[in-house]
Amino acid sequence: VQLQASGGGLVQPGGSLRLSCAASGFTVDEYAIGWFRQAPGKERVFVANISTDAGSTHYADFVMGRFTISRDNAKNTAYLQMNGLKSEDTARYFCAARVEKATPDWTLYPYWGHGTQVTVSS
User: Fold this and answer.
1) How far apart are the first and last CA of the chain?
2) CA distance 30 to 18
3) Shortest CA distance to 96 belongs to which of 119, 72, 114?
């Protein structure tokens, strides 16, 4: 089971990025997907999650209305579209997977990618 997050980079405030989370070694449609982020010196925090069939999504309050989580099970990939980026969104973003119901608790996800760095700066 492997997850590979990509799509991070340097972007100016107000800009957009789309992160991808590609799965290999398993069929992602059997797994809920979560996105989390961690800034230097801070704890890992929940950003968004999506159920196996994409019928249910949840977001952290600080990204509500700016970020959108989605998935394409045919491509074995999940996405995080990030618009209206702010400097405080700067962090390393991780995707994670679990067989059970999606949850914002990162400790309950057994499968993780290495993350992708997002830096928002002018």
Assistant:
1) 37
2) 23
3) 114
d(CA 111, CA 94): 10
Q: Is the dihedral of CA 122, 82, 18, 96 positive or negative?
A: positive
Tokens, residue 22? 């590609």
**Over its length of 122 residues, how does the chain's per-residue pLDDT go in tens digits?**
799 999 999 999 999 999 999 999 888 889 999 999 999 999 999 999 999 888 899 999 999 999 999 999 999 999 999 999 999 999 999 999 999 899 999 999 999 999 999 999 99
Instruction: Tell me, letter by letter, the H, E, C secondary structure of 68-121.
Output: EEEEEHHHCEEEEEECCCCHHHCEEEEEEEECCCCCCCHHHCCEECCCEEEEEC
Q: Which amino acid is at 101?
A: K
